[in-house]
Amino acid sequence: MVTVSHEAVTQFQALMDQVDEPLKITFQNIHRGYPTETLVRFLKARDGNVSKAHKMLMDCLHWRAQNEIDKILSKPIVPTELYRAVRDSQLIGMSGYSREEHYIFSSILSQHCHLLQSLPVFAVGVGLSTFDKASVHCYVQSHIQINEYRDRVILPSASAKHGRPITTCVKVLDMTGLKLSALSQIKLLTIISTVDDLNYPEKTNTYYIVNVPYIFSACWKVVKPLLQERTRKKIQVLQGSGRDELLKIMDFESLPHFCRREDSGSSRSSENKNCFSLDHPFHQQLYNYIKQQSLISEPIQPVKQGSFHVDLPEPAAEGTEIAKTIESELHKIENRNGLTQSLDDV
């Protein structure tokens, strides 16, 4: 894990003090009152190199300014039917918070023996997301809006409640239903991951991967060596639904629905438990917030239908290599002894 020195933070801050006023305002919209923690995140993403971290942050600020990211939470995806279609095919939601003041001693999670205090728990339905009911721009817009809502509303609220900076989250990735057809999603997933890598670095404390089928296991073996060490250390592949291990860091109420494996196949459980659903309180609060912000920013003009276009980044060399490796591995599996049908049923 990268250790960031006080000297590096001081040098980085001195460089940021020299930026033009409009970009300073954009930086304020990123750090939300915690500039030091934000500088540390970017430094970690560039292995403590001040020059590289400064370039990364400046590129991020320019990207935000050029694409009006500061206004994206006032741009609802309308009509509601289109947004519901996005939610039904891009499965992500917030299920709760990690347990406050809890040390992790599990052997599986032993690499993370620091304090996890009330971090938001985001669930991602990797295997069952189809990304086939809207445009690429809608999915990217939705993803960025969730990022921004997390950073502008969820995390500041948690920080204020607990009296300390809470600037990261936990993600639980559900691989239920992962099939060879995931090949068609690699390009979009690479775009989304690149947006996160370049503009929201080090926002996830730990990734827990659950409900792993054979197809994931095969790809993971070849992808894992390609990941940077700091990324590898954040990823924990748990057995089965991961319920027992996750209950060591969060209460049952915060478990994503697909980890509550008493009722097998619970990825499509009742709507009030399914944090992917538009009817879940998290998504209702998010969508209502965006609608309210749209009325504040443009109180007279009707909200335009269609997506809010954001410049799509070119994947970094590492991301491209990983995507190609996954694609190659999936093709191998597909061609191996004609097992496509049986693997899709895993």
UniProtKB/TrEMBL annotation:
The regions listed as transmembrane in this protein's record are none
Which SMART domains does the record match to this protein? CRAL_TRIO_N, SEC14
- Which PROSITE patterns does this chain map to? CRAL_TRIO
Annotated CRAL-TRIO domain residues: 120-256
InterPro entries from the xrefs? CRAL-TRIO_dom, CRAL-TRIO_dom_sf, CRAL/TRIO_N_dom, CRAL/TRIO_N_dom_sf
- UniProt xrefs under Pfam families: CRAL_TRIO, CRAL_TRIO_N
According to the UniProt entry, where is the signal peptide? none
Per the record, the coiled-coil ranges are: none
Q: Do you know which CDD domains this protein is assigned to?
A: SEC14
Know the name of this protein?
A: CRAL-TRIO domain-containing protein
Organism name: Citrus sinensis (Sweet orange)
